[in-house]
Amino acid sequence: MRLRRAARVILIGAPGVGKGTQSERLLRRFPQLQSISSGDLLRQNVKDRTPLGIKVESTMKAGGLVSDDLMVRLVSNELFKRGWIKGQGPPPVMTLASASAAGPDALPTSPEESIIDSILNAAGPRGDAHPPPEASECPSASFLLDGFPRTAAQAATLDRIVPINLVVSIKTPVEVIMERIASRWVHEPSGRIYNTTFNKPKVAGRDDVTGEPLIQRPDDSAEVFRARFDKFEETSRPLLEHYGARGVLWEVSGMSSDEISPELFRRFEEEFVN
Ligand code: AMP
């Protein structure tokens, strides 16, 4: 189905809620839509051994959050690269004061970087920010952001870079997610996933193709999951409040991905097709 307006969408959902499944389904139904996952961008940088990748590797390994500044730079850079936003007006002039405040390593190397730099540095009331980039209204400049923003500070900066027009909060009761995870078995070497409720292996505890034993991942254990879920609830609250106040938040709830998808499609059609 073709979009008539540019969709600039953020998906927010707890681990295990099926955010990945919904993203895939949305991309299939609306081919003009593309997805940007901040976790994937970071992992690619780590793999390519870029300066940013080297910088963030230990934070990621420890399960911490990468700094807001770095994340904003990384995602904005991707938006510029894909042509979904572009700078307007003359490039900002780098003053000696702003250069020294940013530090010798932080000198921007492109007009796009200096725009983001000036937005990031214009925190105070007297901050003299460059005009915000211009977002393309072409439907092919439609995107789903996954994993970014994660904090209210990231969201506030993103507001100054690109206007998000829909924030989807996907909800499933925690007990339902926990039950789903408890019945998930994996064939480690191939990554094949089984579910003892709706996708059973032919022989209990064995991979259909190789006959090798299936395991449950340690991060699928109930306690580990519960801790991740609680952390998500805590960090996503300010984010949801931020977008609630801006009037772009929409909540969809259901017991399964199949229940949620039709609702999500309907909302997309209302918002970006009709
Ligand atoms: P994910 O694949 O979304 O779970 O992200 C993997 C890791 O990348 C996270 O555990 C964080 O260390 C880092 N990360 C991804 N997105 C962000 C973000 N928006 N802010 C801070 N750190 C992030």
Could you describe the 3D structure shown?
The chain has helices at 19-29, 38-47, 51-61, 68-81, 96-102, 111-121, 152-159, 174-182, 222-246, 257-273, and strands spanning 8-13, 33-37, 85-86, 134-135, 142-146, 166-171, 184-187, 192-195, 249-253. 45% of the residues lie in helices and 14% in strands. The longest helix has 25 residues, at 222-246. Strand 7 (184-187) and strand 8 (192-195) form a beta hairpin. The strands form three sheets. The protein has a five-stranded parallel beta sheet, sandwiched between helices. A two-stranded antiparallel ribbon has the order 3-4. The protein is an alpha/beta fold and 274 residues long. Residues 38-39, 42, 59-60, 63-66, 71, 147-150, 154 line the site of adenosine monophosphate. Residues 37-66 are annotated as: NMPbind.
SSE series: EHEHHHEHHEEHEHEEHEH
Q: So, the CATH homologous superfamily of the largest domain?
A: P-loop containing nucleotide triphosphate hydrolases
Tally of helical segments:
10
CATH topology of the largest domain: Rossmann fold
CATH architecture of the largest domain: 3-Layer(aba) Sandwich
How widely separated are the two ends?
Answer: 11 Å
Alpha-beta classification: alpha/beta
Question: What radius of gyration results from the CA coordinates?
Answer: 21 Å
Q: Kindly report the spatial arrangement of strands forming the biggest sheet.
A: 2-5-1-6-9
Number of domains: 2
Please identify the top-level CATH class of the largest domain: Alpha Beta
* Weakly predicted, low-confidence segments: 96-104
Strand portion: 5-15%
- Please tell me what the overall shape is: globular
Which distinct ligands sit in these coordinates? Answer: adenosine monophosphate
Q: How would you state the average pLDDT, rounded? A: 88
How many β-strands, per DSSP? 9
> Main beta sheet: strand number and arrangement?
5 strands, parallel
